[in-house]
Every structure is written in C-alpha cells, then in structure tokens.
Amino acid sequence: MIATSVVLLSLLGLSLNLAFSSSLTQPDWAMALLLAGILAKRHNWIWVLPGIFIHDIVLHWSVGISFAVIALIPLAMIYFDQHLGSGLPQRVALMVIAILSLLQPGWEMAAVLLTLCLCVPIWYLLTSLYAQKPA
Q1: Regions in the chain scoring below 70 on pLDDT
Q2: Shortest CA distance to 39 belongs to which of 15, 69, 82?
Q3: Residue boundaries of the structural domains of the chain
Q4: 8 A C-beta contact, residue 28 and residue 14
Q5: I need a surface site. Which of 41, 67, 119, 129 has the fewest CB within 10 A?
Q6: pTM for the model
C-alpha cells in the first residue's frame, strides 16, 4: 500500500514538473518521493529503480546520472550498514549525493535545494510508516 501510494504520487509529481517547468522554480517531486522511498527501506529498490528510470526518460530524455546514482544507493546502504552500522549520517550523505546529481541535467540550485527540503520530511514520514507496519 505504501509503495503504490508513493509511485502514484511520484507520477503526479512528474506531471507537475512537466506542466510547470518553465513558469516557476519547483522541486523535482518524483525524485524526492522515490529517493525518500529507497532511503526509508533499501528493499524498495524493486519499485524505486523503475520509477527513477521513467523519471529520467520523461524529464531528461535519457537515462541520466540520477538513475546510476540511485541504483548504487542500495549497495552503498548494505556496505555502510555492515561496516559502520545503520545510521542517519550515511543516509543523509547518500541523499545529498543523489540530489546533487540533478545538477548534471541542468536543474537550478534553488530547485535542487527545494528537492532536498522536500525529501527530508517525506523520508521521515515513510520511515515512521514502515516502523508502524507489522512485520
């Protein structure tokens, strides 16, 4: 249920980015939602990676660096969890690196910062939802 909601909201966010791309500075809605989904639970890669692939194809007309960075996040999370323990600093570093990949296709710095500010509360919300969900 959580995954379906996030995917549908990211498609809505993708539509918002396409509809208002030239008129105002806005965050990358789909990237923030999908990135928060994978940071909340690394096993979400199974539905996040196709979403990021669609995101890159629709918004950037290519499979950009965003897809490559997001695809490496689950592997980096496994490595960090085994060597450093699961912790917030590692997740924040991965989030910042993934969001900075938006600078490559030409996003404004204000839009990148807005995406970062949007990703944090969504990540917090998803993490708390997954914590409440029974195993």
Answers
A1: 135
A2: 69
A3: 1-132
A4: no
A5: 129
A6: 0.90
